[in-house]
């Protein structure tokens, strides 16, 4: 892929993300300018959106864990929830194609991606090893917790209020108060 094609693909992907956020229908926006020229098919575009989601989720989890939260599971769930808020259109697309794949290739790709994401969530929450048989189940539970958080607010939100760093003592007080 040439440098120009790489940048065109990035621009098109940003337009797809913006369209999915505006439409909020969970459908891949294959009609966005440049999609036909830069992505082979629905699976190629879906894979790019999955990579964007995973990259943003990983960064968000790393940021939340850097604050050394007391409850790792809650922190990971909160990071997932915040990512879903930030990339709402992308999350809707991924959820739709996970629940209603349009062909076998997409069904397989979404199954693999979901399993890896669940294992990743479990590992980042410190509740499982990557190869542990229970990792996917634990990660699915964390995702479910994150979806509930996405509809509400966590009492253990490790994000500093008004940009202020929260110390260990303040986090302990907040956890005890919750």
Report on this structure.
The protein has 178 residues and is an all-alpha fold. The protein has one domain. The chain is 70% helix and 0% strand. It contains eight helices and no strands. It has helices spanning 3-23, 35-38, 42-66, 72-86, 88-99, 104-124, 135-150, 168-177. α1 crosses α5, α3 (42-66) packs across α5 and α4 (72-86) packs across α5. The longest helix is centred in the N-terminal third of the chain and has 25 residues, at 42-66. The radius of gyration is 18 Å and the shape is globular. Mean pLDDT is 87; it is low at 153-164.
Structural features:
178 residues; mainly alpha
DSSP helix fraction: 55-70%
Average pLDDT taken over every residue: 87
Radius of gyration equals 18 Å
Q: What does the overall shape look like?
A: globular
Order of helices and strands: HHHHHHHH
Strand elements, count: 0
- Number of separate helices: 8
Percent of residues in β-strands? under 5%
Biggest sheet architecture: none
Which structural class do you get from the secondary structure elements? mainly alpha
Counting structural domains, the number is 1
- Runs in which pLDDT lies below 50 for 5 or more consecutive residues are 153-164
**Could you give the distance between the termini?**
52 Å
